[in-house]
Design a protein that fits this description.
Elements lengths: L1 E3 L2 E2 L5 E5 L3 E9 L9 E10 L5 E2 L6 E4 L3 E4 L7 E10 L3 E11 L9 E4 L3 E6 L3
Parallel strand pairs: 3-12
Antiparallel strand pairs: 1-2, 1-4, 4-9, 5-6, 5-8, 5-10, 7-9, 10-11, 10-12
Length: 129
C-alpha cells in the first residue's frame, strides 16, 4: 500500500499538494507468502513524464526528500508487514511521478536486481493559495 499525504494511491489517483509543504509518504509492504522475504532495499525515485517517451529523473532542483529515498529491509515474516515513512518537498509546480522499486539485497538469491516495481504514483504540485 502507498499513501501520499494520507491518501491511498493507485494508478488512477492524482494526489494534489502545495509547493513548499512537506508531503508525507508511507509505503507498507505486506508479505502474503509462506516464507520470510528479504533482505532488500526500497527505493523511491521521482521523475517527470514528458509524454513523449522521455522520463526526466534529474529533479534535484525540483524535489527533495526529507530523510532518505532508500530504506533497507532486513526481513518480513509471513503474514506480517513492514511500513516505511518519508516525506517529499516539492520546490516547483508541476506533475511528478514516483517510481517505487524493491531491490534484492542478497547476492545468494537468483532474483533479478530489481524484482518488484509498484505502479507509479502521480503527484501534482501547485502554488499555495
Amino acid at each position: 500500500d502507498i499513501l501520499v499525504d494520507g491518501q491511498l494511491c493507485d494508478c488512477d489517483v492524482v494526489v494534489n499538494c502545495q509547493v513548499g509543504d512537506p508531503v508525507p509518504l508511507q509505503v507498507k509492504l505486506t508479505n502474503w507468502s509462506k516464507h520470510s522475504v528479504g533482505p532488500f532495499a526500497l527505493t523511491v525515485m521521482p521523475y517527470q513524464d514528458y509524454q513523449n517517451g522521455v522520463h526526466n529523473y534529474d529533479l534535484q532542483d525540483a524535489i527533495t526528500f526529507v530523510g532518505s529515498n532508500t530504506f533497507y529491509i532486513d526481513s518480513v515474516k509471513p503474514t506480517k508487514d513492514s511500513v516505511y515513512f518519508g516525506a517529499l518537498l516539492f520546490l516547483y509546480t508541476g506533475d511528478f511521478y514516483l517510481n517505487i522499486k524493491f531491490h534484492e539485497d542478497n547476492c545468494s538469491r537468483e532474483l533479478p536486481l530489481s524484482w518488484l516495481c509498484l505502479p507509479s504514483v502521480h503527484i501534482r504540485a501547485t502554488e499555495p493559495v
